């Protein structure tokens, strides 16, 4: 038993060798007390060698058991192969168990460290070892046509943003910029924005700025100023031509933060003094900019954004400020979206909005003012759409005019009429003419429209004010004036066109009336014809009936006649037959009588003869 | 019937006589007088010859065998001899250097043994420490064993020592390099060196350009060097046997029979497997070269089935990877030692360390035993489904255990007709089991020591086993003694495999050599060296021309049987390889092992890149493909080592192994 453990004793040579003392000890245990030093050394060396040999041989058993770990079993098998008794008691209960050895105090004996086992405890133990289960096989697909299921785990890392260590300079730059943006020094802030807009070397910082904006928007939603600053940062990044925003998370994060500013009922908007409408306008403009420059059919950015805006707008439970954001957002995109989303929703939405506006109770005061805001935005949208439509229309007309100018003067009148026809037949997004659309819209916006027009102007001014922060105010004013002049002109032209349209409509109505009259006449004629037809039909039916009856009558008569004649004939026949019969009978009787007479005569003759 | 093959190295007349006398001694000792007389008469040996020899037999025997190491030289000079030889080799031209380095290892070993034999223990240790580190990595295992031998007494009975003293170390060398060496030895007159090279080395000289380092390492690694060039000269009939004529009904039930029968028939014939079998292969052996059992009706049906399935099989390759189904063996706390799937993939057998064998069914049909004798008599023997009626439904189960061995079961193999199972165990016996009655039929006792592997012949009737006693044995199921004993390996024979035509077997051994044997003559016809560790699994390609081998050295080698050359080295496994199989059409090789990974290798590509025109007689003209792209795919399991890979007839890959506990 002790043999194996003794190998631990280290010699100055490479292998463990039994010492003389160990050999003596073993010899002692089997009753040999006298053993020379030389013999002990030799025995020790030989025994060590045999053990080494057995250990080497035991690896063969491990290999054939297809294991990576040499077990005591393998060693025992190797021992048995060389005709040595196996060493018992070292079979591990648990394969992972590590043997620990202990020395006695004088260091002569090494033994296995074993715990005492209390049999009583085991006997009374509730912990009955469970059945490990029968050996069985379980099938599963390791790979299907060469694609392994376990390999998919490798692709997980791509979802996370890559965390790269920034250089110290970059880090300080980022800290400075963000501090100056959020700080109070306006000069520094401006400097920071210009640098962000122009610096081409901030590319590695892009993910940091994006997360700065997207996280910042949510944390400072109570502070309009800071929010505006964050939007400025975003704008600066957008305008930096050296930045490429396409990689997936960036663009989405930016749009998300914009949508947040645009649509969410920000905490800042609770305070009535805060003009959160401006912020929303600004966000809408930036959103439009980002979508126009970065949306592709592949990233679905436009589609997703429009979908969100639509959902918000169509949801009446959302606060009015969200509706405002949605309307503004749609308007900033392009007229196509106004047509597709806002206009079809107006028949539903306007009554809702009007009901809020009409509620004059004091509690509703705040909501009402919000509703006015939304009302203004919708109006602005419609007006914008109308204007663009009119402009299109005018362009069309001017083109036509150019065409007609080329044509000869004598044909001008004909051309004009043609033009009118053409203008009517032009493909129109509203289904009818612009004027009709206008009148429809007019239905939604009651006569107080003049008042709302002012609001509209105010709004415009507000937007302008927002832009003032970035651009110079004078330029803006000039622009405003220009816009106003342009609008006046447009309105005049519009009115002219209205008149023209009205005339056309009147003419149409007249035409329609004539048509209706004709229709009525036609209907009457039809009715008369129908009545005549009915009468004719009835007459025909009567005649038919009479004829039928006649026929029936004659048929009956004929039948009776036939019957009568038949009876007569029958009677005649019977009579004749009776007569014949009687005659025959008479004849027969006569003949009989004659015969009898004859016979009597004969008899008499015979008798006479006899006699 | 038995043909005992002696070692390939030539022996002198003296040793022949010694052997003869030893045999006589043995006969006398065991009181076999008649045989003794007969042998004496035949050999012309007189009693006087025997007598003096027998006195002090044990001492003189060993002394004779080891006399070669007797040397009176100064032990301190060995280090100088070795260093001188090394400096000479290093001073040579680069082309010769690599070849000459080859002699360093055997010289080192024999010098060390000489020192040990002459009891210069301290010098031997010093010598060993100084130079053992610079030997090739694949010799380190042997060196470890060598280093434990420090006394003359230890040398006796040590397997490795026996091999070194009895056989010569074979080195292939170009003539130029050889002449260099010869000149050096003649000039310097170093006697012990000269003796070692003359007595213990065999230098196989070839004419041609010296080989490069890569070529040398590819074929090196054998316990006693490489194979001689002449070893692979014998003609091997590696072709498949001509298939017996069976009318295979082509109108398959599964396929539409309407009018399309004729074109389909042609299509089926175009299948290369069927084509090859129909024509006469010049490399195929005569079908009666070894007697094979006659085909029964049931075998014919089975063949038809297999043809049908083969027609439907998936062609796999680089572009069409196989699907792998893994069978994990759970709850095998006792330890699974071997897993094997039968040819038609319906049964799986596993051997366990607790001496049991379990057979699992892989199809929905359960395993049934045969009815008892009384019940069997009632059955109408002429009915068509007599085989079905013989089975007892009451005994059906998903798994059957076979108990009988008294040591870990190291191999199981199911015969192709699924009636028998052969198993080999540590207890030294090979057992034949019936899969109809689920009982042990025969216990074949012939091997002395653990039997590592046993395999059925693809044609049934024969089986082969191999084990620790360094022999492989061919048996037929109806004889309790082996028909052939194949001796020649220098260490344990770890695995054995039948050639698809049943005329040859191949054995892999711990001496790191693969040998191919002719079942008819019992001769070794091929020797493949190149593995750097024990070989544990071999596999023939379906056409019988190629063989893949793998083992502890984590490398899979692909060999051409026709020329005896190595085609490719497939490296990628990180642990020992224990399972190998070719796909059914031979285009892909699959492997698995202790690294819990099923790997797929591109054999087609190896064959495409293989230059068939190269001259096999000049070793330096051979190239070994070790392209890393040959690995097509690797499918790791969680922790389950892969002990078995098997392609079904439709080329679905089945793999199996025990779940790690």
From TrEMBL, chain A:
Belongs to the TAF6 family. Residues 463-608 form a coiled coil. It is found in: Nucleus. Keywords: Coiled coil, Nucleus, Transcription, Transcription regulation. It comes from Mytilus coruscus (Sea mussel). Pfam families: TAF, TAF6_C. GO terms for cellular component: SAGA complex; SLIK (SAGA-like) complex; transcription factor TFIID complex. The nucleosome is a histone octamer containing two molecules each of H2A, H2B, H3 and H4 assembled in one H3-H4 heterotetramer and two H2A-H2B heterodimers. The octamer wraps approximately 147 bp of DNA. Residues 16-80 form the TATA box binding protein associated factor (TAF) histone-like fold domain. PANTHER family: TAF6-LIKE RNA POLYMERASE II P300_CBP-ASSOCIATED FACTOR-ASSOCIATED FACTOR 65 KDA SUBUNIT 6L (PTHR10221:SF22), TRANSCRIPTION INITIATION FACTOR TFIID SUBUNIT 6 (PTHR10221). Signal peptide: none annotated. The keyword Transcription regulation applies. It comes from the Eukaryota. GO terms for biological process: RNA polymerase II preinitiation complex assembly. This is Histone H4. GO terms for molecular function: protein heterodimerization activity; RNA polymerase II general transcription initiation factor activity; transcription coactivator activity. CDD domains: HFD_TAF6L, TAF6C. The keyword Glycoprotein does not apply.
UniProtKB/TrEMBL annotation, chain B:
Residues 73-201 form the TFIID subunit TAF5 NTD2 domain. GO terms for cellular component: transcription factor TFIID complex. Gene3D superfamilies: TFIID subunit TAF5, NTD2 domain, YVTN repeat-like/Quinoprotein amine dehydrogenase. Its main location: nucleus. Keywords: Nucleus, Repeat, Transcription, Transcription regulation, WD repeat. InterPro entries: LisH, TFIID_NTD2, TFIID_NTD2_sf, WD40/YVTN_repeat-like_dom_sf, WD40_PAC1, WD40_repeat_CS, WD40_repeat_dom_sf, WD40_rpt. It holds the Pfam family WD40. One of its GO terms (molecular function) is RNA polymerase II general transcription initiation factor activity. Residues 248-297 are annotated as: Disordered. It is found in: Nucleus. Residues 270-282 have a biased composition (Basic and acidic residues). One of its GO terms (biological process) is transcription initiation at RNA polymerase II promoter. WD repeats lie at residues 402-435, 444-485, 486-527, 528-569, 570-604. Belongs to the WD repeat TAF5 family. This is Transcription initiation factor TFIID subunit 5. It comes from Mytilus coruscus (Sea mussel).
